[in-house]
Amino acid sequence: MLNDSIKRALDIILSSILFIIFSPLIILTAILIKFDSEGPLLADTPMRVGKNGKLFKMYKFRSMVRDAHEVLTENPKYKKLYEQYKKSGYKLKDDPRITKVGKIIRKYSVDEIPQFVNVLRGDMSIVGPRAYYADELREQQKEYPNTRNEVKIVLSVKPGITGVWQVSGRSGINFDKRIKMDALYAKKKSVLYDLYIIAKTPLAMLSGKGAM
Q1: Nearest-angstrom CA–CA distance, 1 and 7
Q2: Of 50, 77, 102, 177, whose CB is crowded by the most CB atoms within 10 A?
C-alpha cells in the first residue's frame, strides 16, 4: 500500500509539473490542429479499459480526420484496411486518416500530452501498461488465447502514458509479446522501476522509434 501511495503522489507531482512545462507546446499544438483540419482539438475515440476493467475516456490531441474510428469501421471504402488494422495489432503504418500535423505529433508522442489530465483524475498513471480498447482486447485474445492470464494481470493496475514496451520498441511489438511485458511490469512494479522507465521515455519520444 505504501508503494501505491508513493506512486500516486509521484503521478500527481510529475503530471502537474510536466503539464506546466509543456503548456507552450500544448497551445502551439492546439493552434496547428485547428489550422490543419476540421474537427475538435481532442480525439473522439472509443472508451479505454482501465484498472479492474473500468472504462474511461482517454484524452489525446486529435491526429486524424474527424470521426476517424467510425470512418474506419463503418465506411465500406476502408473494409480491407480495417481487416489489416485488426490483424496488425490495432495499428496501421500508413493510415490515410492521419492529418499532416497528426503525423508529426504522433511521431514524437505530442498527441499524448493531454493524458496528464487522465493521470490527475486517477484514470491512469505516468507509468503502466497500454490502455486498450475493449474490442481490441477481445479480438487479440481470440488471436492469442494463451495471453488471457496476462490480460487479467495487466488489468489489475492502472494503464500508463508510458511503459516498459513503449521504451523497448513501442508499436513494433506484437500483442502477445507486449501483453507479457506489461504483465511482468504489473507483477514487479515499484517506484524505482517507474523512475527507470520515465528516464528512458524522452529518448524514445525524440527518436520517434516505432511510433504510429
Answers
A1: 10
A2: 102
Contact of 22 with 131, CB cutoff 8 Å: no
Read off the pLDDT of residues 182-197 as tens digits, 9 standing for 90 and up: 999 999 888 899 999 9
CA distance 55 to 49: 5
Phi, psi angle pair for 129, to nearest 5°: -70, 170
pLDDT at residue 210 is higher than 80: no
The residue whose grid cell reads 507546446 is 25
| Calpha distance 132→137 (Å, rounded) | 6
Instruction: Tell me the C-alpha to C-alpha distance, in Å, between residue 125 and each of 97, 135, 160.
Output: 28, 22, 5
Which residues, in sequence order, are bridge partners of residue 48? Answer: 56, 133
Give me 140's grid cell. 487479440
DSSP classification of residue 56:
E
